[in-house]
Write a structure and sequence with these properties.
31% helix; alpha+beta; Alpha-D-Glucose-1,6-Bisphosphate, Chain A, domain 4; two-stranded antiparallel ribbon
Length: 190
């Protein structure tokens, strides 16, 4: 009984190490490319992780990077978003956190954000919102560009003390910024 058990162990070891010539039996290693943009401001460094679980929208534009970049400040100005982040080398423009109440760019906050509701009233329209809006223009194929926008918001009740509410984006503000930049850049190019 001792010999067959030894023989079985020998066969198992031979099979486990045999693998064959040139075969790699290691499991593949999955790597995720993390895309970060670092912007230095007078008050410190802001890191933008484009792959984090935040709203992140990318739109191809029919203009080059320089024309798209030139349009961004006017668009933010029209929306009433004051820039606190401007990096012309990396083409990053935005605000790392500004307080808004009820409207942004002439639209009700609930058009852009879902922060839940209280007594049937959208919290986005009734609470103070701390909003972060960051846009970057990046090169795309054929000498064109792409615009990516990352938005996040937190709502704070003004009438009562309570926990802040994390809001999700509806995608409407990202879409509006992309359309406005595209329209502005095309008009300026004519």
């Amino acid at each position: 009984m001792r010999v067959p058990m030894f023989a079985a162990l020998f066969v198992l070891c031979a099979c486990a190490s045999g693998g064959g010539k040139g075969q790699n039996t290691d499991s593949p290693v999955m790597q995720q490319r993390v895309e970060m943009t670092r912007v230095e401001t007078p008050s410190g460094v802001v890191e933008i992780n484009w792959q984090r679980e935040r709203t992140y929208d990318e739109t191809k534009l029919l203009v080059n990077v320089d024309k798209a970049w030139a349009a961004v400040p006017a668009v933010f100005g029209e929306l009433g978003i004051s820039p606190t982040l401007v990096d012309s080398k990396q083409h990053v423009f935005g605000n790392a956190g500004a307080k808004y109440r009820r409207t942004l760019g002439g639209q009700r906050m609930s058009r852009y954000f879902d922060c839940g509701a209280t007594a049937g009233i959208s919290n986005a329209d009734d609470y103070d919102l701390l909003v972060r809006v960051i846009t970057q223009i990046i090169p795309a194929e054929a000498g064109l560009s792409a615009l990516r926008t990352q938005i996040e918001a937190t709502a704070y009740a003004t009438a009562t003390s309570g926990q802040p509410v994390r809001c999700s984006s509806t995608g409407a503000l990202e879409e509006r910024i992309a359309h406005m930049v595209s329209d502005q850049a095309i008009r300026a190019g004519k």
